[in-house]
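Researcher: We plan to redesign the surface later, but first we want a full-length starting point. C-alpha cells attached.
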C-alpha cells in the first residue's frame, strides 16, 4: 500500500524538486502553515489537493522538457 496521492505529490515537490515550503506556498497559493500541516498528516481540502496536483504536474512537465526525464 503506497502513500496517498496528495502526500506523494507534496513529498515530490519538497524533496525531488527541492522546493522550500515558502516556494511551494507561492506556487500553489496555499499558506505555509497548511502545507506543513498536510505534510504532517492533516487531510487537505479538495481545493488544496487540486492546487498541489497542478504544481506537481507542472514541475514534472518542466523537468521532462529540460532533461527528458519522466515521473516514475
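Model: Full-length starting sequence:
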Amino acid at each position: 500500500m503506497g502513500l496517498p496521492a496528495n502526500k506523494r505529490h507534496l513529498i515530490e515537490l519538497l524533496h525531488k524538486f527541492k522546493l522550500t515550503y515558502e516556494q511551494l506556498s507561492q506556487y500553489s497559493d496555499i499558506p505555509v502553515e497548511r502545507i506543513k500541516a498536510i505534510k504532517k498528516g492533516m487531510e487537505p481540502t479538495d481545493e488544496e489537493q487540486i492546487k498541489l496536483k497542478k504544481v506537481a504536474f507542472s514541475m514534472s512537465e518542466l523537468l521532462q522538457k529540460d532533461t527528458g526525464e519522466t515521473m516514475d
